[in-house]
Design brief:
The protein has six helices and four strands. By secondary structure, it is an alpha+beta fold. It has two domains: 123 residues, no CATH class; 61 residues. Helix 4 packs antiparallel against helix 6. GO terms for molecular function: zinc ion binding.
Amino acid sequence: MQAFLQQDPNHPGLETVRLPCVPDETNVAPQPHCREAEIELCLVCRRCGRAYPQESTLLAHQRSCYLGNQQRRGALRLVQMRYACSLCEPGIPTRTYTTANDWRRHAETLQHRTRLEAAQQQQQQHQHQHQHQQQQQFDGGAQSGEETNPLTDEMEDVVNQITLLAARAAAESTTSGQSQTGERAGGQDNNNGPDAKRQKLVQEVTALAGAR
């Protein structure tokens, strides 16, 4: 802090100085839900180095300390980094811990363990629901594919049969055209023969398409 004060006593504005957390001598890896939180210690006047717990008392002091030079007022905001529990207090923490050992003792309490078990169960339920939804989507896609293939095969059969009947009708029409002169001599029976066959083929095609 003295180094900040000696840099420029008349430096205007508010500057934050963060003091690190107390080092952990056990070297244990950080546990889940353990996070760092800032705790404001005090406000320090840059000119004289006096500390005040609140901003209002600091401003009252600086009116006289910076007499005639209020635009140059400066202060340091001292912040101590501590540990907090994001599981028990997800928002702004009201309870902090100076060392990691203090936080681990909190993690062993019944309140913390109960909330940890509830959070783990909720996470497992979410994972199970997500997997169930994915399985349903997969099964639905497989059933849709199975229904599509038979329909496509059925339509192909209909087209093939219609094409065959059309070719047969064209062949019979060609044959009847070649013998048209002889058929005219046959009278009324000859006129009804090709038309009856053509009409019968049309009825078969129509019935086949309707059945499909």
